[in-house]
Amino acid sequence: MPSSHSLQTRENTSLPDRIALSAATVQGGHLRTEDFADWLAERGRANTFRVARIPFVELDGWSFQESTGNLVHRSGRFFTVEGLHVTEEGEPHGDGPYADWYQPIIKQPEVGVLGILVKEFDGVLHFLMQAKMEPGNPNLLQLSPTVQATRSNYTKAHRGADVKYIEYFVGPDRGRIVADVLQSEHGSWFYHKSNRNMVVEAVGDVPLLDDFCWLTLGQIAELLHLDNVVNMDARTVLSCLPFGDAWEGALLSDTELFSWITGERTRHSVRAERVPLDNLPGWKRRESTIEHEAGRYFNVVAVSVQAGNREVTGWTQPLFEPVGPGVTAFLTREFGGVPHVLVHARVEAGFLDTVELGPTVQYTPDNYTHLPASGRPLFLDTVLRAGPDRVRYEAVHSEEGGRFLNAESRYLLVEAGEADAPQDPPPGYAWVTPGQLTSLARHGHYLNVQARTLLACLNATAVRTR
């Protein structure tokens, strides 16, 4: 830390320009973009990866607690699967057909570190990325941050190997901070879960270890246009980068936007009470799954994992598996020549602060097929019916592969008109600029994890159009 007697500038005014230069550089000095696929495939061949579904009785170290039926680890660490009873009170809700429900939830109180190390080579910032296996990823191996570790991981509660590069983020001699913010995880599946999202610029030489590579931001932007390559943890960290804002105007001033968010948080009252997983209304525990009686939402399952390059090379664990692919999208419009996206003030049971800003659409369509048209979520059909001429970005990305199995969503940026998405939107929705999203991402618990993914995709799309 600098001396308490020395004054510093409050903002690093050169940083947005350095980030912009890295974003504009589509060929790195270490690994060519066209060689990345071969590099990732080689890392897959260099290690043994295997994931198999198992019945709950074959979980090693995990068991259903006798008094509650909660699924717990014998160490008392890692996470638990519990029940949650959610009641939304106050003004009418707009986030789904039910104001009162029960569900399983993951409780993981510890704060993990998601960190990307950056270093300048030949005048251009490069990002140290990792080929990391996660058991829930549909293709197992994806590009992750330099460090992606829970506190149990990096304090070695699992008695495994050291987490590589962790000293650059939590040690006394860590590098220069570029971004450092607590961000929420999936509020529909985690209870009050946050991770520390960090970008740190290295001071001095950095050894390049197996399974890691240096890429420019422009190269990562190209990879964000591919399906299931850049993992969720990398996407959320990238969204916290302090990009410069090319536009000054907005439909809502920043003060008006904060006031609107505060009003939405005041308008909603949510009571989320942890309850025993045993006999959870609407849910049935079977030999290999905990599932909803209507076959909707998600299942809790168990897997056995082998991963040759992880701190622990073999383990078993529970995972949440959604019943179908999701659709996650921002509707976009220009007002006065300034791009805007339509955000939704979303209520999710696991949020710390009731409401966070999410995409216009964030749903699993299969969960709504039984409802009449009047019960379907706003703007979902607008996105589903959008023709290719209106789609400005599209890729399939998986969610957090350490806790969720085959959780994929189709992420889109869809251009809309007044008839589809009026300038004066319905309650619970607001038009904001990408620059305003970037400002909000510098603070915790304003943008949900899906909105942060789409912000990273917005920035990647902007790179292509510069």
From TrEMBL:
DTDP-4-dehydro-6-deoxy-alpha-D-glucose 1 binds at W62, T150, R151, S152, N153, Y154, D233, E400, G401, G402, R403. DTDP-4-dehydro-6-deoxy-alpha-D-glucose 2 binds at S188, W283, R346, Q362, Y363, T364, N367, Y368. InterPro entries: EvaA-like, EvaA-like_sf. One of its GO terms (molecular function) is lyase activity. Residues 34-241, 255-458 form the dTDP-4-dehydro-6-deoxy-alpha-D-glucopyranose 2,3-dehydratase domain. This is NDP-hexose 2,3-dehydratase. The lineage of its organism: Bacteria, Bacillati, Actinomycetota, Actinomycetes, Kitasatosporales.
